[in-house]
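Hey all, quick one. A colleague (J.T.) asked me to put the zinc ion job into the tracker so the inputs and the structure tokens live in one place instead of scattered across chat threads. No bug as far as I know, just bookkeeping. Sequence used:
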Amino acid sequence: MGRRLVLLLSFVICLGTCQSVRAQEDSAAPVKLLPGLDKSLIDTSADPCVDFAAYACGHFSKLYPIPPDKSVYGSGAIVFDYTQQILHDLLNKVAVNDPKRTANEQKIGDFYATCMDEDAIHQAGLKPLQSELDRIAALTDKSQLTELLAHFQLINVNAFFSFGEQQDFKDAQKQIAVVDQGGLGLPERDYYLRTGDAPEKTRKQYVAHVAKMLALAGEPEDQAAADARKIMDLETALAKVSLDITSERDPNKIYHPEPVTELRELAPIVDWPRFFSLTGTPPITSLNVANPDFFKGMQAQIESTDLGTIKTYLRWQLVNSIPGYAMPKAMDEENFDFYSHKLRGTPVQPVRWKRCVAATDGALGEALGRVYVDSQFPAANKAFTLTMVHDIEGAMGHEIETLDWMSPETKIKAEDKLHSVANKIGYPDHWRDYSALTIVRGDAVGNATRAVEFEAHRELAKIGKPLDRGEWGMTPATVDAYYNPSMNDINFPAGILQAPLYDAQATDAENYGHIGAIVGHELTHGFDDEGSQFDGSGNLSNWWTEDDKKKFDTMTGCEVKEYSNFTAVDDVKVNGKLTLGENTADNGGIRLAYLAFLADAKRKGIDLSAKQDGYTPIQQFFLAYGQNWCGETRPEQLRLQVQTDPHSPRKFRDDGVVQNMPEFGRAFGCKTGQPMMPANACHVW
Ligand SMILES: [Zn+2]
């Protein structure tokens, strides 16, 4: 729901289906966290000046081969797996039906225990879906779609469009309603439109998948095959009026505040005032129609499609909205086979408990997070991180002051924005209240549905209310971080503040290379091609002089060119435009962390020429940074990532960045002109 431009680190690549790209056998040895600098990963036969990723991470895949139930495995995934184990232990304790449990413990414990009861879920088959299927069957006229779509929006069925709440881009204090494009079953628009053998093959596989799911939902096979083709036609028509993924990063392209009357003109097939009232939306007269052309196109498509096909499409979107763990066995396996095996290359389905831990975190993240933080997050981690964040903000202030390309006028605005950034570390000050959410032991589909409905109502209730700046968009146990331009805040959940990212045993150089670069990354998002369009209060408003903006675009153009030259897989190149914001954040992040480390070293009298374990502190800093991105990605996943993910593949998050840091080249004795020390380095921040 909703339209957010939240910019992630994407430390563990999930792409919305984390639960199906997760970990290994139950019997596997417990996962151990890596140290700040892991020398066993370094391949000293590689030349750091030619390929830094190969040097810093050369032995990773031999020591940590990609598990059969994952499509990506890397340093972040180790931290993720470790955290899953902790959550698993915590959930096992509260899964026992004990009257002494607190209200939150009952909820997370029963949700988890119900998810784990695979036999009961499989035995129930499609029964839990029957009332929803009956609603679709009862449709006799397109005018009845309003009621059904309102209900489906609340239970997260991706039918035709999406609906939710967002901060007004141009007035961040205001929380408004938003309708946006949606309704697709493939990862994004271009999956329907791209030409070539690989995209054709994916489309054929998708049609076959839809047919199988419809057959499993009770349709005769012939009819299911014919229906799947009709669904493909309908979704392709929706794709044609959707924005591509690069345009979706442009806030101006997805911001069209309109009176409700205008939306009624664009898509009269839905009775919008009634739709808003049925979803429990507080009274509104206007909203953000993110992509008006989509609604015009959707109207035309619904008008020209027969009711039978629309009902088939709704059945497919309903079935596809149920989380795999709550589906009957054959459907769960088919769902995994298409979305995880064919699209991402993952060979086998993860064991049950890992899927259920992830599902509990997804449904009740702050209830689980509260238990997690109490047992796992020492106050010292928060204190250290806060000091580091202040150091890095100081480094950014110094960078802005000394930038030679920016005018004093724009500098004042940039500094204003920097000083307004809110730092959120570990977990929220006020925990979410789940008392209105009922979790029933033994009702897997009901629990999943009630949890998404609870969340939908929570979001919609914000419309027209004062903004809560303390809200978090990630759960405390998440191993990731983000920047939100409308909030102008950087967020580091407790899950990412553990070794090797932050390790009390590690050297300062290592900690600044790890978590320091991540803090710098999130802070730089406030000043990347997208974040820089928002001011310190979170409003979409141009604070740049025309001349400075031009210079900034030239500077970022250097990065677009650099990354567009990297080949990700086969003949597929990195999309330099789609990944620009993340690449700018990676490049700025390491520079800020580097400057902050120099200040820290000066303050503490760290001798920068003294080697420890064979490396100087500066070398340790870069190696720790490099080891953030060790790992391997299956080719299918890599193809999907390049087409859908604004983050560059992990190898280029190392090599692409150090190429722009002459300080790296000097630390490793590289010569100008070597691949990691080119003469034409890019420098934005
Ligand atoms: Zn990012």
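Adding what we noticed when we looked at it: The longest strand covers residues 171-181. Residues 7 and 314 are 31 Å apart (CA to CA).
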